[in-house]
Amino acid sequence: MTFVVGENCIKCKHTDCVEVCPVDCFYEGPNFLVIHPDECIDCALCVPECPVDAIFTEDELPEDQKEFLQLNAELAAIWPNIKQMKPAPPDAAQWKDVPAKRKLLER
What we know:
The chain is of the alpha+beta class and 107 residues long. It has a single domain (3-84), classed as Alpha-Beta Plaits (2-Layer Sandwich). 18% of the residues lie in helices and 11% in strands. It has helices spanning 16-20, 67-76, 92-95; strands at residues 3-5, 26-28, 33-35, 55-57.
């Protein structure tokens, strides 16, 4: 099993999760983070660190976000690895809990 970054991370992109990851399995895009499924060791340290509750186990991924399992794998293969916490985007708080952000994902 792996952990998956879901839709609520889009445009929020807090990196608190990156700071606690012991295996550096997070990858960064323009406005979203993903977890590389082959690198994640299922430690769950990242889950409570996410201020927007955007990280799920693949088994607990909401039904309307199942595509994010494949999306995390696909984008982790092309985006750069992130190993250090960075400031969130200045407008991150405005995007917290905004529904239907999938269309806003920048590749």
